[in-house]
Amino acid sequence: MVAGHDTLGGWGDARKVAYFLENSEIIIPRREEQLKLLVELIPYSPNASLSVLDLGAGFGSLTERILKHFPSATVTCVDGSEPMIAHATERLLKYGSRARIRKADLSDSSWIGALQDRARPIDVESTPNGPFNVAVSAIAIHHLTDRRKQELYREIFDLLARGGIFLNNDVVSTPPALKEQFERLNLLAIQEQERSKRGMSRSRQEIEAEIREQRRLAGGEHESRIASLTDQLHWLSQAGFRSVDCYWRYLDLAIFGGIKEQ
Ligand SMILES: C[S@@+](CC[C@H](N)C(=O)[O-])C[C@H]1O[C@@H](n2cnc3c(N)ncnc32)[C@H](O)[C@@H]1O
């Protein structure tokens, strides 16, 4: 929280977190496909001893997939929400020291301090070869202002080792002329996921009312911080990433990123 402003987009609220935990696979169209693909895009062999950073890791669903797919990997989870951290801690307990959970607010660069480990101190300024092979994020960075997104992309670049990759699965802005189509297709996807996973499906009006309530809990600035994919690809290139591209997109959801070249 900065001067009365909720930098977490409502995620400090235990009810909002409980709702997301229960419903993320329903309310995010093609959620399973995205998390699966993101892990498969990581360009390392499954037995590699990777050091991975998960930003806005939430309750650890992406982290857990990475820990399972790469049994020798260590994942550092960063999130600013107390209830999310509590869920992640419980969920990732069985991975012991392979899961490191850090509470920090990504809305300014002081979050990097939370990565400091007395055994392995990080000096980002003095080394072009950062401590992480992979940085990932899912449905989190859109909560930051555009200026902060750009700074964060530079910070991630510095924290990556040469050859490392950043993969961001996030909400991107909708082309204004297609707003209605995107909304209609998003609702259809949610209805379809409800049908297939829960054997039931609510009306369009019921789902819309629920989405409105969740947006209310998230605070009014939620939507205005969603940036276009084009801008974000540009910011990644400006930060130094190469092979910058969108690797997957469906409506307003995308997986994009880049490589820190050798
Ligand atoms: C929609 S949840 C996604 C969680 C997880 N990545 C997933 O896909 O299941 C968004 C997450 O971003 C975190 N978040 C939002 N703003 C943040 C900030 N300024 N600093 C740290 N975490 C933040 C929230 O606490 C929340 O856990």
Give an overview in words.
The protein has a single domain, classed as Vaccinia Virus protein VP39 (Rossmann fold, 3-Layer(aba) Sandwich). The longest helix has 20 residues. A hairpin with a 2-residue loop joins strand 6 and strand 7. A 7-stranded mixed sheet has the order 3-2-1-4-5-7-6, with helices on both faces. The protein is α/β, with parallel strands linked by helices and 262 residues long. The relative contact order is 0.16. Bound molecules: S-adenosylmethionine. S-adenosylmethionine binds next to helix 1 and helix 3.
Please render the helix and strand layout as text.
Elements: H1 14-27, H2 31-41, E1 51-55, H3 61-69, E2 74-79, H4 82-92, E3 99-103, E4 132-138, H5 146-159, E5 160-171, H6 179-198, H7 204-218, H8 229-239, E6 242-250, E7 253-259
Parallel strand pairs: 1-2, 1-4, 2-3, 4-5
Antiparallel strand pairs: 5-7, 6-7
The protein binds S-adenosylmethionine (SAM).
- Class derived from helix and strand content: alpha/beta
- The fold-level CATH name is Rossmann fold
Biggest sheet: strands side by side, in what order? 3-2-1-4-5-7-6
Whole-angstrom Rg:
18 Å
CATH arch. level architecture: 3-Layer(aba) Sandwich
Which compounds are bound in this model? S-adenosylmethionine
Classified in CATH, the superfamily is Vaccinia Virus protein VP39
Mass-distribution shape: globular
Distance between the terminal alpha carbons, to the nearest Å? 38 Å
Approximately what portion of the residues adopt beta-strand conformation? Answer: 15-25%
Task: Count up the helices.
Answer: 8
CATH class: Alpha Beta
- Main β sheet profile: 7 strands, mixed
Following the backbone from N to C, one meets helices and strands in this order, namely: HHEHEHEEHEHHHEE
Mean pLDDT: 92
Poorly predicted segments: none
Q: In percent, how helical is the residue content?
A: 40-55%
> Got a strand count?
7
Integer tally of domains: 1
